[in-house]
Automatic annotation (TrEMBL):
Residues 52-180 form the Methylamine utilisation protein MauE domain. This is DoxX family membrane protein. The keyword Transmembrane helix applies. The chain crosses the membrane at residues 20-42, 54-72, 92-114, 121-142, 162-182. Its main location: membrane. It is a multi-pass membrane protein. Pfam families: MauE. Keywords: Membrane, Transmembrane, Transmembrane helix. The keyword Transmembrane helix applies.
Amino acid sequence: MLSGNASPRSSGGDGYAGQVAGGVAAPSAVPSGALAAFAGAVLRLLSGVWCQRAVRVALALVFMAAGGAKLADVRGFAEIIHHYGILPVWGVGPVALLLPLAEVVAGVGLLFAVRGSLAAIAAMCLLFLGVLGYALATGLSIGDCGCFAPGELPEGVQDGSAVRGAFVRDLALLAGVAYLYAWRRLRRRMA
């Protein structure tokens, strides 16, 4: 095999990664057949209706719980919004009431697969990421990000870790939204 031609064993089918210098086949750490089987199993799981339903229900419950908790203490949530310094004082109260209502309505809509609810959840995730990104970029020291309920964190968390943690959490929520959009697109292609 000095000519550089691939041997039948270097095709990747029997656990070989392929040809390296000198025409010698290098073994891979995982046989490609096992890797393909694992990838196929993961794709079957992710494309299944039960996985989609679990992600949809989880997202819906998160938004319903977050909105409901904020509605239970609108004044506390308004104070948190005010600490970000993004809105004028006259806009804080209406946003403190309307945003949690939108979260609950979108969450209920997503739970029952109402058209437009996933888009509303996606828009809110992007809004939340933008606000948290602003807080991180400007170095705001906010102990309570306001993501779920006022006072969700103990006093004294002023190092920005609450905002960083909320940013990562919202990225995970956005990943769930992206999965639901991808699942829809895959189902449309298969139909």
